[in-house]
Amino acid sequence: MAILTFTLSPEGIGKLHDALACLGKFSESVSIEASHDKLVLTALNSSKSAYASFTLVGNKFFSKYQYKPLRSANPKEKFNCRIYNKALLSVFKARVGDPTRERETAIERCDVSVEDGEGNTKSRFIIRIICRHGVVKTYRLTFESVSPMHALFVKESANNSWSISSKTLRELVEHFGPGTEQLDVYSEDGRVSLTSYTEKIMSGSEILKQPLHTTIAIDTLEFADFSVEEQLHIVISVKDFKSIITHAGITNTIVKALYSRPSCPIQLTYSDEGILTEFILMTIGEAKAGSATPAPNASRAGSKRPASRQPLEATSSSKRAATLEMPPPSHHGEQNRTRDSRKTKVSRPSPPPPQPSIQSDALFMPPADDDRRWDPLNFEDEDEMLLWDTGAENNPTTLNSSRNLTAAEAGNQSGSHGETNTTGGQNNQHTSTQRIPPTQRLSGIKGMFDD
Amino acid sequence: MRFKTSVRNIQTFSKLTASLSSLGKVAWLRLDDDTVRFTIIPETGTQVWASLSIDSIFEDYTIQSAAPNNTINLELPLPPLHRALKSAINASSASIRLTKKDGMPILSLTIITNTVSSGNSAHGFLNAAAGNQDPFGENGAFREESLDAGREREAVVTQDIPVRVLTADSVEGIHEPRVREPDAHIILPSLIQLKAISDRFTKLAMSTTTAAKAGSGNSSVPKLELAGNMHGSLKLSISTDALNIESVWTGLTNPELDPGQVADGEEGLEDHPSTKLRARGPDAWAKVRIDGRDWGRVLSVGRLGGRVIACFADEHALILYVYLANYEDGADESVLTYYISSFSA
């Protein structure tokens, strides 16, 4: 029997996809917790230093939402399950942001029902995507019944707070190059500096492999609200922060941060229509300047955190090597470098007056960047070049249609597990058997028997 | 040792680093009173010697060192430089200086950029204040004085790129390759077209030699043949067991050699290999065999929009001279020289 049923609008599907993509950067599985008025999606990373949670409000986010607990005697009872995130992503990804295909095969809505129970009922997470022309795609995903772990954050003890436009923050974060590990947030004298850096010690020609060290200095007036202890360094993982801001920047919202002191968690929240988003990240312990708290040489890596840490599970933030998603240059565990010296430079030449600036949206917009065509061709990937541009047309009978399924998409689709069955003609899973896609569309060829 | 400059032309600088970094990750950067020179010498593949007039990318350039001509030699990783310049694309100003941090030499790029005013309602009054500033008024000309006015909407981004300072001794032995006088020189057609066709040819050839592809990589990839004559034609071809394709451009220009640049002047010109090749007619070609992937990386220089002259030393080497448009007339020329050696048949 169906414990949970809900219906999503096409727009809701897109938003759910964005949320899942963000959760996917923290953990490969997503925990789902349903109660009578909301659905909560959470992920906790493997080192338990970062926690992400999306609360979808039942009557706002969904066009229909109904939860019937198994034992209806207790209406407070929640339903919990855990699903492999990629499976969900590939289901909802199908059509996101592809206006060229929208006309013919647009999704009208998406019905989800979760079945569980004793006896004959199979435990399945069933997603039905209803498209135009009566095409219905049904996905049955398996799930685990596991209670999610929630990180706790005690707001009362968080005396530092700021909030800022997500767009502004996203624009700033785009300046950070790849490869760095930490982000330091520091404020002094009306200026806030965000520094992305890494602590690897390198020597010789290795020095040149050191990632970019980036400092962004902005005025506190850039923030909607800024109330933070002067000269306090708060250090978090730059990768986690980027993941968050990437999602937050999709909509124009206000990101609010709350924190107390190093080695205590920081909370970042924002909301969008019907979605409340919360992240709790462990900050890296560091004796703040002039304060006598932890031992000055307390190793920031691998050391046991003071028992006062608040989140349930968010413990050491340093055992990064275990995280699957971390890029290969993983955190070098034990380093005891004092960083005080390198934290002092905040360059603040006073800038000229503002001029209208053209926004670079590299992260989120399709590359309108002509310059890219000059990049050397990667002969190893299967993307084809010099094709006839089929433009907005998407005629599934041409051999070229397979190119619409990008390699990445194909990878994701095959990565989904659970049973997929497709009713109707919507089969875009066929793979190209041609090594070299033709340069001419079949419809354009005049055969010898045509007349 | 001091080096500090403003970046005059961030776009050009960024495109230059993009083109160079496709050939090698680390460049030798030589700065002195007159020129900025990037040199890339990869272990295999094409060498680039890019010599730019200071004006073409920098302004307010100051350099000081104990070496003659105030020369500073640096080893500079290109991907971080390129990434850092990306931050500067929409900047109102950017400057670079050589400095030290934690005892390590760095090139520090300071970028002053405008932050987006995304209708942050709490700051409506600031947007209004910013709107009152006339961006075309005094502020441009007297930037220094009006600094504090717009501070609220500015972000100062500092990108620190690790570098190594090279001693004069360590670069003494590195010289530009010497190649014999070319047999043919010709102005190349549109590089984007040439690149598309070259890439296409290479890809076709690679996919028809799949068996070898899985094997030992480089050696199995068929080579592109590029040939030029002295009668305005360029020929690009590739052949494998399964196919043989060829593209020919005609009506191109063979620039006249400047007698002043040729050994023995007018006389030398008469004996010049290219004069001889021209005399042999349009069916006489000077030919090189090159690796298609390497060639694709070379052609990424097209983004700079320069004029490209290809010099063919038959069966030996191909040299490309990429002349960049000058920032000001009469300034020293900026030229990128690519040395591509030919594979034997």
Automatic annotation (TrEMBL), chain A:
Bias (Basic and acidic residues): 331-343
Pfam family name, one: Rad9
Stretches for region Disordered: 290-376, 391-451
Cited SUPFAM superfamilies: DNA clamp
Domain of life: Eukaryota
Keyword vocabulary terms for this entry: DNA damage
GO biological process: cellular response to ionizing radiation; DNA repair; DNA replication checkpoint signaling; mitotic intra-S DNA damage checkpoint signaling
Entry-linked InterPro entries: DNA_clamp_sf, Rad9, Rad9/Ddc1
Function in brief: Acts in DNA repair and mutagenesis. Involved in promoting resistance to ionizing radiation and UV light, as well as regulating cell cycle progression after irradiation.
Protein name as annotated: DNA repair protein rad9
Source taxonomy: Eukaryota, Fungi, Dikarya, Ascomycota, Pezizomycotina
Automatic annotation (TrEMBL), chain B:
GO cellular component, one term: site of double-strand break
Domain of life: Eukaryota
Swiss-Prot/TrEMBL keywords: Nucleus
GO biological process, one term: mitotic DNA replication checkpoint signaling
Pfam families, A to Z: Hus1 (PF04005)
InterPro entries: DNA_clamp_sf (IPR046938), HUS1 (IPR016580), HUS1/Mec3 (IPR007150)
Entry's localization field: Nucleus
Segments of this protein annotated with the region Disordered: 256-276
Similarity field: Belongs to the HUS1 family.
Name by which UniProt lists this protein: Checkpoint protein
Source organism (scientific name): Venustampulla echinocandica
